[in-house]
Amino acid sequence: MLSIVRRNFPLKAFAFALAVAAWAYFHFSANPSITARFDQQLSVPIVVTGLRAGYVARYTEKFAVVTIDATRNTTPVKPDQVEAVLNLAANADPGVFNVPVQVIAPNLQIRSLTPASVTLSIDRLEERTVPISIAYNGDFKNTVVDSAGLDPAQVTVRGIAADLARVQAVRVEITLPAKGTAIDAMIRPLAVTGAGDEVGAVAVSPNLVRVRARFSRSSATGAN
Fold first, then answer.
1. What is residue 5's predicted lDDT score, i.e. its pLDDT?
2. Cα separation of 144 and 217, whole Å?
3. What is the pLDDT of residues 130-174, one digit of tens each?
4. pLDDT range class, residue 186, cuts 50, 70, 90
5. CA gyration radius for the chain?
6. Which part of the chain has CATH 2.170.120.40?
7. Which architecture characterizes domain 37-115 according to CATH?
8. For the range 184-191, what are the long-range contacts, defined as Cβ-Cβ under 8 Å and sequence gap of 24 or more?
9. pLDDT given for residue 16 in this prediction
10. Would 158 disulfide with which of 49, 127, 197, 223, CB 3.0-4.6 Å?
């Protein structure tokens, strides 16, 4: 009997292992209680909550990568089912903070999150009213400004304190015409520094003002 067992033993062992593997495959694949699982990655926008009115949060990392434990053969999870939140309720004053990213995903198993936290700055929004000036571009030797008016004559500039401090004036730019004429146009006012550079980080309201002006030829160059 022993000699019969030993005869072609490696082949018999291989056949037995193959039979066990086949049995396990058909048994577990047909069992609905045993479900294959895999990792699903989602790119989710990072949003802020709990920020006080009149303040703004600034941060560079706008998306979080969330890896969830998903079930194969089911509908994939959509990004809008998951939220990546920075809760700023505990950060009342302006400053720089490192805030953990909180994932809101009901009934989902989170495996990993990148980034786990975000460094951000909280600044207070301020505003002030500024009169508008007109900046003329061109040659005054050939053109005379007979009249010019703005409606409204002043605007509101709004932004964080550091950016607002850079604003020294608000102006509209007009190119002098080559001949006598009149203009009536809506022009965007620009908040500028003392050097004349635009401060794009502040908001100007209204964003368009009505400009009416009349020009004539200079008497030194001939009649109007």
1. 44
2. 6
3. 999 999 988 778 888 999 999 999 999 999 988 999 999 999 999
4. very high
5. 35
6. 126-221
7. Beta Complex (2.170)
8. 184/210, 184/211, 184/212, 185/210, 185/211, 186/210, 186/211, 187/211, 189/132, 189/155, 191/130, 191/157, 191/167
9. 59
10. 127
Q: Is 38 helix (H, G, I), strand (E, B) or coil?
A: strand
For domain 126-221, is the CATH number 1.20.1380.10?
no
CA angle 180, 181, 183 (to 5 degrees): 150
Closest Cα to residue 219, out of 127, 110, 144? 144
Q: Is the pTM of this model over 0.85?
A: no
Q: What is the DSSP string of 130-171?
A: EEEEEEEES-TTTEEEEEEEEESSEEEEEEEHHHHTT--EEE
Asked if residue 16 lies in contact with residue 9, where contact means CB atoms within 8 angstroms, the answer is no
Instruction: Classify burial at 155, counting beta carbons within 10 Å of its beta carbon; exposed 0-12, middle 13-18, buried 19 or more.
Output: buried
Structure tokens at 121: 């700055």
Q: Which residue has the higher pLDDT, 25 or 77?
A: 77
CA-nearest of 191, 209, 211 to 201 is 191
